[in-house]
Amino acid sequence: AALRDPMTMERANLLNMAKLSIKGLIESALSFGRTLDSDYPPLQQFFVVMEHCLKHGLKVKKSFLGFNKSLWGPLELVEKLCPEAAEISASVRDLPGLKTPLRRARAWLRLALMQKRLADYLRLLITRKDLLSDFYETSALMLEEEGAVIVGLLVGLNVIDANLCVKGEDLDSQVGVIDFSLYLRNDVDDYRGNRNSQIASILDQKNYVEELNRQLNSTVHGLQGRVGSLEKSNLSPLGQLAIAKNNIIKLQEENQHLRSENSLILLKSQQQLEVTQGDVSVERDTYKQSRQGLDEMYNEARRQLKEECQLRQDVENELVAQVSMKQEMELAMKLLEKDIHEKQDTLIGLRHQLDEVKAINVEMYQKMQASDDEMKKKNNMISRLEEKTNQITATMKQLEQRLQEAERHRGSAEEGTRRFKLDFANKADSLQRRIEHREKQLQQLETDLKIERQWRQTLQKDLDREKDTVAQLSTEALQISALKKEFHRLQDENLQLKSVCGDQEQALEELGSKLSESKMKIEDIKEANKALQGGQVWLKDKDASRCKLCEKEFSISRRKHHCRNCGEIFCNGCSDNELPLPASPKPVRVCDTCHALLLQRCSSNAT
Q1: CA–CA separation, 166 vs 91, rounded Å?
Q2: Which class is domain 549-606?
Q3: What does the alpha-carbon distance between residue 366 and residue 373 come to, in Å, rounded to a whole number?
Q4: 538: helix, coil or strand?
Q5: Chain-centre distance for alpha carbon 396
Q6: Domain boundaries, the chain
Q7: pTM (two decimals)
Q8: Which tens digit of pLDDT belongs to each residue from 312-335?
């Protein structure tokens, strides 16, 4: 029944075609190059196969122009399922020339492949079968297991980089037919492949045979060499004797050649020794001069360090004194501020008292005005009474007694008024004196305040001056630290120079030891040659105490000279005969007996 179902067969065929297309695309991309463009045929066939897979089982929608199968509908759902796909959908909608749904769907597939997210988007799409049921039939490829298999195959396309131009490409005119010729096998190709494999196996056999022949030839050559060596070893004793004579003659010639080379080596070694001695003396003088200069520099740096240390100690002591002075000034400023605050409080109290005195004065002035008004009223009353008395003098004679009493009352009133005026004048004078005293105190306080302000300004100036001094001392301390760093750097350089001098002295010692060893070797060779020539033995230094010619004892000024031929010992005074050699820039001493070269020995028996 499954084989007779056309939808099942279509799904199987599309799955197989998807497998072949994806496999061929990956293999060709790996052989051709991982970056592909839109003109690559396997890539075009892949898009055609994917378009057929997405169109399988797609529902037909009715429109005004007829029936239409649109891929853009289900692909547009990916934007809702994955927010990251919104950028692709927006790009497809905004591209010019993509008006039909088919163009948009093809452009969407190409952009998703370039992002390497095509498998992820389709996986999210096939998981929502409830949404796909609106666009596909129940037996469509996207709703069955084949869709999940194709999505899994699409994951392998992430190894490919696609560089596709969607903007200017004509997506409507592309052929939607699958080219099966790309996936069919060719008999000629199979035959060529078999033939190539046979040729490769034949070439491998040929290489094996050649290698085997090469190994056999090497074995034959080795056997031939062994046969030749055996033939040479099986020669007759006469041949061996002739060979021995020839070897002796060769050895004699070689011995003569070695003697001549020995003499040349001796002359060259003496020249090199003189040159090296000159170089060593020059280097020693240079080293002594550099060491003397370094010692002077070290002494100068040490003296500067002592001076800087003493200067730093003085600066530190001065800084401590300045800090103590600053603390004392701060304490004095605090006490001065406290005294100023107390005087300000006193001044405020005096001002309050002055205000009270002013209020009392105002009150007394008001009372005085009231008394003046009352006196004026009384005077007016008296004037009226006098007028009345003048008018009614005739009628008021009977009231003379009352008038006399009134006059007495008036005198007492005037006396009280006079006393009141005297008391008020005395009180006003006392208050005026107190006000003047307070004003004098206020002026004195103001002068004290001015003096304290001036003192405070002078203290502030001294404090600013001390701050400048402290800043200058800090800069000097920084300079001292920089000088310290420079001194440490000079010490490091001195240590490096000392290490270099030590290395040079060690190198000179090693050079001297090597020269002495080479001279000893040359002496041993000479002694061996003498032994081979005549068996003559040099006389030991401890046995020879006098010169053989002049019979004088050897000393520091009269040195020993050996004849390398006869072994006799002469002093430097007797061996005056000198002969110039072609290879030596200086004449050398010769023996008076055998005219051979003399060798001078030092106390350590070194040549």
Answers
A1: 10
A2: alpha beta
A3: 11
A4: coil
A5: 130
A6: 6-183, 549-606
A7: 0.34
A8: 888 888 888 888 888 888 888 888
